[in-house]
Write a structure and sequence with these properties.
Helix content is 10%, strand content 43%. It is mainly beta.
């Protein structure tokens, strides 16, 4: 299966469009405030792309220190590539943790400016920040991660995180992508508790908690994009 991960792609494409300033102090990030008042929220804007009109980037920073990043390559794709992980902040700096190199951002007056891998400012005349926007409706995205099927329960762990999401089963009498995943899991995974690495088109939705009161987030699988039985997150 050809897996796709948006963070490495975004890093490569941004590097092709921009040149990082030398780490001699002149190119260091200059914050607009010492400490941002609140990181959580939704940020979005179009960032540079090496071979397309731009990458519409949406970053949701959640109060529980998790994030969802979507990147849509304009005039190329109709569904964004997504990644889910954890974030941390220190002063004016924000770090998105991934299974690859962390992504660095700096607070820029209600916007987040993309920084180099060492936290340095990026010298560019192109748009390089995502601004705070109202929360957007949940949307489908391509996700890569490990699928688990055991004792009749289905779960999915996106690459780059240890977070596990329950997976909504297909409607009764309507076989669909989850049944396909279950059948492949039983056929290919011989060791209990091991993941089946897949790429899916999915939407994060909320519904009643499986145990107790309250609500819980679920993964709704819209389609299976690919199966990778032998390799992990790449």
């Amino acid at each position: 299966m050809k897996t796709n991960c948006i963070l490495p792609c975004l890093l490569v494409l941004c590097a092709a469009c921009q040149t990082a300033a030398p780490g001699n102090g002149k190119g260091q990030w200059q914050p607009s405030v010492a400490t941002p008042p609140q990181w959580t929220g939704t940020y979005a804007d179009t960032l540079p792309c090496a071979d397309c009109p731009g990458i519409f980037t949406q970053l949701d920073l959640r109060p529980d220190s998790t994030y969802v990043l979507r990147a849509l390559y304009l005039e190329r794709d109709s569904i964004p590539f997504g990644t889910i992980g954890t974030w941390r902040s220190h002063g004016d700096r924000l770090t998105l943790n991934t299974f690859g190199d962390p992504m660095q951002w700096g607070w820029a007056g209600d916007s987040l400016q993309r920084l180099g891998p060492g936290g340095e400012a990026i010298s560019t005349s192109l748009p390089n920040a995502v601004r705070r926007v109202p929360s957007l409706q949940p949307s489908a995205m391509h996700l890569t991660g490990g699928y688990f099927f055991q004792d009749g329960s289905h779960s999915f762990t996106p690459c780059g995180t240890t977070l596990s999401f329950p997976v909504l089963a297909d409607p009764v009498n309507a076989p669909g992508p989850v049944q396909q995943l279950d059948q492949t899991y039983v056929k290919e995974v011989k060791e209990a508790g091991r993941p089946l690495y897949v790429q899916i088109t999915a939407t994060i939705r909320s519904g009643p908690a499986m145990e107790g009161d309250g609500t819980q987030e679920y993964i709704q699988v819209d389609q299976v994009d690919g199966l990778n039985m032998l390799q992990g997150c790449r």
